[in-house]
């Protein structure tokens, strides 16, 4: 097979169906950009989980005098020194505990004033109304239930709170958005495949005389199909290149420059360039193989070769 013939046929096919070729490129670019974006979103969520779950604490809040009057969990009165010592001793014995930090009422009051000093409630609070607490760093953040079982309902304990629950709601929302992007991506891929099949069939129909002559002179099926398959592959590859460029530009302007989220949101550990660059070969390979395979199966039925 002469390469010059195949290349010339590819050029002819792309020019003849310029509008449909452009539609294929756009649909492939959008669907693969969403595909790459969903993969990067998964990496970002996993990175954030690893970063934040390593920092979350379990907090054991102790009863104060105010709680003894209003909270059923503190019906037996404010926590005593013996109860505090016993809770601390039990915490230090637990294998799931990494370290324990004590926050006094004065420290809790200071932290509250720092965070909510502008609140109208802040001016009416006094240190003795704040709760003492133990902030526990777990070796495995998933072991919160062990802490809840051990300390919920104990004398002197008002509540056991897990910061991981707050993060789970956030990550649940991010995962939901990611699955929505994947659903849109799947729809766009179906549209792209339908456009590829129709484009190939239109191209084959417009050159039916040439293909008929090639069959009569004994040309092989692959020889006849190759230009059409490569047309679809080239259009898909262009779309894949556009998708890769979009991801690189989005990473550059959204995280590093432009919006510069990496500077404005210091609390978020953003994925690096390595995560983006490792996805590009997969996107390019998909953009090449998907149209080629779609064209191959469409032509087998249409050309009957």
Mean pLDDT: 80
Helix content: 55-70%
Q: Report strand order across the widest sheet.
A: 2-3-1-4
The shape is rod-shaped
Order of helices and strands: HHEHHEHEHEHHHHHH
Count of DSSP H/I helices: 12
Biggest sheet, open or closed, and with what strands and sense? 4 strands, antiparallel
Question: In terms of per-residue confidence, which ranges show pLDDT below 50 for 5 or more consecutive residues?
Answer: none
Structural class: alpha+beta
| Total domains | 2
Residue fraction in strands: 5-15%
The radius of gyration is: 32 Å
Number of strands: 4
**First CA to last CA: what distance?**
17 Å
Structure in words:
Residues 183-301 form the ABC3 transporter permease C-terminal domain. It comes from Streptomyces cadmiisoli. With 305 residues, this protein is an alpha+beta fold. It folds into 2 domains: 3-52 and 169-303, no CATH class; 57-140, Alpha-Beta Plaits, CATH 3.30.70.3040. It has 12 helices and 4 strands; from the N terminus they run ααβααβαβαβαααααα. The chain has helices at residues 3-16, 18-53, 65-70, 81-93, 105-116, 144-151, 163-206, 208-216, 221-256, 261-264, 273-277, 280-303, and strands at residues 58-62, 97-103, 133-138, 157-162. It has a 4-stranded antiparallel beta sheet with strand order 2-3-1-4. The longest helix has 44 residues, at 163-206. The chain is rod-shaped. The protein starts with a helix and ends with a helix.
Q: Descriptors for this entry?
A:
305 residues, alpha+beta, Alpha-Beta Plaits, 2 domains, 4-stranded antiparallel sheet, rod-shaped
